[in-house]
Amino acid sequence: MSDPAARRLEGRVAVVTGASRGIGRALARLIAAEGAHVVAVARTVGGLEELDDEIKAAGGSATLAPLDLADMAGIDRLGGAIAERWGRLDGLVANAGMLGVLSPIGHIEAKVFEKTFAVNVTATWRLIRAVDPLLRRSEAGRAVVLSSGAAHSCKAFWSLYAATKAACEALVRSWAHETDTLALRVNSVDPGATRTAMRKQAMPGEDPLTLPTAEDVAARILPLLFTEVTETGGLFNVRENRFTAYQKPA
Ligand code: NDP
């Protein structure tokens, strides 16, 4: 068990989506090790159960919430369940995402486009909508939404994924503007290339051992959930260790 004196999220409740593997699972473990109760969301029950075992072995606690984020009503029910049990939410990590397809824009199938937007964008909005009132009730609500460098580089064949991540950043910036007089702080994160299943799908020829692990990257994202955070609406680039502050509109 970690040193209670060092547990910087003691007594807090945090939702982590995409907690069955990759960056989300690593971050969920770290958040729990800091003393928060983690609500772990993903479709793969086996991955969630492994996470639960890891968290318990380290002296932490979690609630598993198996959910396909394409199920919008399910997201609303998740928000309702958190409201009923805790009456507030202290942390949100909107990490779940899918690559969709890397393809010339004219070759993307409509159903792939719609599914990728549903999971990456509509579900992120729906989750924000479901938990915004609960985060506002926290003394120091913190939200982190996973973006990507693709949102800005917009390389050939990356249009679908890039557009979803650009949309997520826009949601975060507007949300920050709506809430910047409150204790709530919301930020986007570009984790950079990370050794996960999604990166393998995008770059099958790449040697994964050349990339930072999900654990390395999660450790850099974790501080955005601490009460000390003052910035809101910004973008943290993990690879460059650079925080770009949000320029507040006039
Ligand atoms: P992984 O593919 O390893 O993990 C994705 C997670 O999202 C899984 O836990 C998966 O769970 C969950 N997920 C996907 N679809 C759904 C769904 N429909 N409903 C519920 N959960 C879902 O990805 P990474 O860890 O690499 O990526 C995490 C985030 O970081 C993503 O938003 C990604 O876009 C972003 N990112 C990653 C980079 C990288 O190099 N890895 C670079 C830049 C950004 P399950 O399948 O069990 O449902």
From TrEMBL:
Gene3D superfamilies: NAD(P)-binding Rossmann-like Domain
Keyword Oxidoreductase appears in the UniProt entry: yes
Annotated CDD domains: SDR_c (cd05233)
Pfam families to which the protein is assigned, alphabetical: adh_short
Source organism: Plantimonas leprariae
Protein's name in the database: SDR family NAD(P)-dependent oxidoreductase
Gene Ontology molecular functions: oxidoreductase activity
Domain of life: Bacteria
Keyword terms, alphabetized: Oxidoreductase
GO cellular component: membrane
Taxon lineage: Bacteria, Pseudomonadati, Pseudomonadota, Alphaproteobacteria, Hyphomicrobiales
